[in-house]
Amino acid sequence: xxxxxxxxxxxxxxxxxxxxxxxxxxxxxxxxxxxxxxxxxxxxxxxxxxxxxxxxxxxxxxxxxxxxxxxxxxxxxxxxxxxxxxxxxxxxxxxxxxxxxxxxxxxxxxxxxxxxxxxxxxxxxxxxxxx
Length: 131
Description:
Blueprint: H1 11-25, H2 37-44, H3 48-60, E1 64-67, E2 71-74, H4 78-102, H5 107-125
């Protein structure tokens, strides 16, 4: 199934984000071989040049390594992945706070909602269905 892209950002940036997410979630573990440019293009239903541009971005920031004869691999440098995770987490937190502020919540209300959400998550993980 083709990946779905929005029209508000260049596809190569969306593809870059998608691969970064795959790296951060373990879909593409450290040291693992990534699909070829052609395979990625088929999976995402995009032009191989778009995939090449996205992978070049990831290579430039050090999240993937290009081994000429064997392909592209996720970096084995845990520090780079940790930095990418922190950058992604920080961006998500900023977006969340902006959205909550836009909805009219103050910081105390946001904190309360987060505590409640965490409690619900923990209950769900413990098998409690809330009944």
